[in-house]
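Structure in, sequence out. Go:
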């Protein structure tokens, strides 16, 4: 009957075009939805860890932001670097830029770690370069942006871990 009306062939081509377009874009839409679902599940799973999960090459990094500085745990840093050194060695390398959290875990200031990775021997190793860039781009820069646009400012008291102005020269 449709052939007799002269619309059978155009209707068939139109239907084939719609099916082709749907078949072409469905994988892209499905991948986008799967990516969104994966991000949502990851966000829900790591919600208790300060809202963000940080890892470098599969090594989980415990990051804390106290409003003034961003801190990284020494165990995660050693795992990311592929080294095994006592906490005292890490603390000595970053003197006055470390603390212990409530559970006794060594926490190092991320800005000091990035600076150390940029100036220490072995600074041109690929892993160290990638770690330093990760710390700067994924941790320090977003923290600085959050602080810049935050209506709440930390007290302008001097930082006990920063040297006095007289020693900075």
């Amino acid at each position: 009957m449709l052939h007799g009306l002269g619309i059978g062939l155009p209707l068939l081509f139109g239907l084939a075009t719609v099916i082709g377009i749907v078949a072409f874009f469905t994988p892209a839409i499905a991948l986008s939805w799967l990516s969104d679902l994966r991000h949502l599940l990851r966000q829900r799973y790591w919600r208790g860890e300060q809202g963000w999960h940080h890892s470098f090459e599969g090594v989980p990094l415990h990051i804390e932001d106290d409003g003034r500085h961003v801190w990284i745990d020494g165990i995660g840093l050693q795992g990311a670097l592929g080294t095994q050194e006592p906490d005292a060695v890490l603390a000595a390398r970053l003197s006055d830029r470390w603390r212990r959290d409530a559970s006794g875990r060594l926490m190092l200031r991320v800005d000091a770690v990035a600076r150390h990775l940029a100036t220490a021997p072995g600074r041109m190793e690929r892993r160290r370069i990638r770690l330093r860039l990760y710390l700067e781009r994924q941790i320090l820069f977003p923290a600085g942006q959050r602080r810049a646009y935050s209506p709440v400012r930390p007290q302008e008291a001097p930082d006990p871990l920063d040297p006095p102005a007289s020693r900075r020269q």
